[in-house]
Every structure is written in C-alpha cells, then in structure tokens.
C-alpha cells in the first residue's frame, strides 16, 4: 500500500500557537503509520517550514505548498490542520489550500471565517429549534460613553469578549458598571470587533461533532465545572482548575435534544471535520443556550474531543483516520 503524504500543519500567528503544538504532538503520535507518511509543517508569520526528524528546518515552497527533501520534490496528498486561531481556523490558510486543490481536514474558508466571528455565527444559528442565544451587542469601536450605552441595552452581569479571539484571551465577566470600561479596553486590545452579551446562569457543556463515512456523528457532551468565574485560559489549560465530566450529567431527554441541536448547527454552518460546540443548560428553564463553535478544537490528550472519543469506546488512531479519509470524499 502506497502511503499518503500528510502535512500536519501547526503553529499559527496567535498566542494559541503553544496549544497548537501540543495538539499536533498528540495527533502525530496517534496517526496510522501504515497508511500515512506524516510531515510536521510549522506556519508562523515570519516563516513556514517542515521540521525534519534531525531538527533541520526545510522551507515550504508557497507556489505549490511543497518541500524538497534530498533533492526530491514532495507534494502533499492532504493536510491535517491543527492551527487554532489565525491563519488555520479563520479561513485564510484553507482558502490557500483550496486555490491549490489540496484537501484538508477542517471546515472550508467561508465557514471558518464566519465561525471565527461570534456575533455572525449567532445570527446564522438563531432560528434552530430549541436553541437559544443570549442577548448581545456587537461592537466595532471603543469610545467614551460606550459603557453607559451598553448598560441601557443589557442587564448585568455581562460577558465582554473579543469577537474572534480563542482560548478566552481578553475576555471578562463584568458584574458592576465600574468594571465595564476596563473590560472593553482589554477586549479591544485583542480584536477590533467585540461582543458584549448577557450572562446566562447555568451549567456549561461542550460537545464534539464530526463527519466521517458520509454521516454526522455527535459525541457525548462534556460538563465543565470550573472553580474559576468562567472557563478562561487558565481553567482550560492548567490541570486541576476545572473539573470535566464526560459524558456530562444530563437526563436522557436532554441528551437526545442536544444531539439534534448539535447536528443542525453542524449542517447549518456547513461544517467539515471535527468541531466543538459549547453551550449552557440554563438553571431555571433547562433551555439550551449557544455559546460558540470551535472549528479547530484542541486535540491534546486531556482535551474535550479526546475525552469524548474515548467515552464512545473509540481510539484516537481510528478517529484521526476517519477524519483524514473523509477529506478525499
């Protein structure tokens, strides 16, 4: 069997590149060596190279996304994209792959760029039955008096978050009016668009969804119990700060309901590969509230998708094989 050449693309332009490298290490460890020859490719703002086994950095030719090894030109059959944030998750890199006709494991450029924008995403999925969205305002600039205007429209407590940031960087929970100006400054440091939304009181869950063998599979939800005010960067990546239960504690009726919702979100946004939808189950009403969708979710050993795959009795090797094989269909 001739092995397919796969570029495992990692790194990126944001603070999330450190998480991307951790995810890539896990993916590399679990890819089927009998089927695939894997080439780690690092993408940064100032460089793009294949990191050879001997530590040599071999530059990538951007004309056709190829490398030269021992005088031989190597082109890739496909790309396993594990860049969180820009340019891997926001559509820039996959748009380039589309132009070259190279298949990849993640969403296409349109879906990737739309879903990086939290406000646009919420507008698209707003009419899905049984799915609610918190009241919010999308901001394009920061100015004097903005905080007062927001407090007329929204009720405290509120979340202030960069519209396209990931890993909860630049995000604040504002409980009183005095904190709002600072929270806005912090979010606008990360992004030129900011979303401010009312806080939903409830239990937080995250659910993985992927397409393979022509069908959409919804994985079990993970319930996130954070000792922090919200599931921030530290809670996500520092052991012991949050407790995660997979499958999360939900009654059977809600489990079935969220499966339907998750599948509709995946279809409506035209997702591909494995994505993760975060949601709240509101305390008073048991309504489902959409938080966001993550189109290049973390793939570290402890990350939520990995936990959910294991919860259905599947191993990561088979899971990654299904994701890779799907990109040629």
Report on the architecture of this protein.
The chain folds into 3 domains: 4-105, Rossmann fold (3-Layer(aba) Sandwich); 114-131 and 201-326, D-amino Acid Aminotransferase, Chain A, domain 1 (2-Layer Sandwich), CATH 3.30.470.20; 135-198, Dna Ligase, domain 1, CATH 3.30.1490.20. It contains 10 helices and 17 strands. It has helices spanning 17-30, 92-100, 109-115, 118-125, 146-153, 180-190, 233-237, 252-268, 304-311, 316-326, and strands spanning 4-11, 36-43, 48-51, 57-59, 67-69, 72-74, 78-81, 131-133, 136-139, 158-162, 172-174, 194-198, 202-212, 215-226, 242-245, 274-282, 288-294. The strands form 4 sheets. A 6-stranded mixed sheet has the order 8-17-16-13-14-15. The longest helix is centred in the last third of the chain and has 17 residues, at 252-268.
């Amino acid at each position: 069997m001739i092995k397919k050449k796969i570029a495992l693309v990692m790194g990126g332009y944001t603070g999330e590149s450190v998480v991307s490298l951790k995810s890539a290490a896990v993916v590399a460890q679990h890819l089927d060596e009998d089927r695939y020859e894997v080439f780690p490719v690092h993408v940064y703002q100032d460089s793009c190279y294949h990191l050879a086994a001997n530590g040599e950095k071999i530059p990538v030719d951007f004309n056709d996304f190829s490398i030269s090894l021992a005088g031989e030109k190597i082109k890739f059959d496909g790309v396993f994209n594990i860049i969180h944030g820009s340019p891997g998750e926001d559509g820039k890199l996959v748009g380039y792959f589309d132009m070259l006709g190279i298949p990849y494991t993640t969403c296409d450029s349109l879906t990737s760029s739309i879903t990086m924008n939290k406000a646009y995403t919420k507008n698209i999925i707003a009419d899905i039955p049984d799915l609610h969205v918190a009241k919010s305002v999308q901001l394009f600039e920061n100015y004097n008096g903005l905080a007062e205007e927001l407090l007329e429209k929204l009720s405290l407590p509120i979340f202030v978050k960069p519209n396209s940031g990931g890993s909860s960087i630049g995000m604040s929970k504002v409980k009183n009016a005095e904190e709002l100006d600072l929270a806005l400054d912090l979010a606008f440091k990360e992004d030129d668009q900011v979303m401010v939304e009312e806080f939903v009181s409830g239990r937080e869950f995250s659910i993985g969804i992927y397409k393979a063998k022509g069908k959409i599979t919804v994985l079990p939800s993970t319930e996130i119990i954070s000792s922090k005010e919200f599931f921030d960067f530290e809670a996500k990546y520092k052991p012991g700060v949050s407790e995660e239960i997979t499958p999360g504690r939900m009654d059977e009726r809600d489990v079935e309901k969220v499966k339907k919702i998750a599948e509709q979100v995946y279809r409506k946004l035209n997702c591909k590969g494995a994505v993760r939808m975060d949601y709240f189950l509101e305390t008073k009403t048991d309504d489902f509230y959409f938080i966001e969708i993550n189109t290049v979710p973390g793939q570290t050993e402890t990350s939520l998708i990995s936990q959910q795959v294991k919860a259905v009795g599947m191993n990561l090797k088979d899971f990654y094989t299904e994701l890779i094989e799907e990109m040629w269909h």
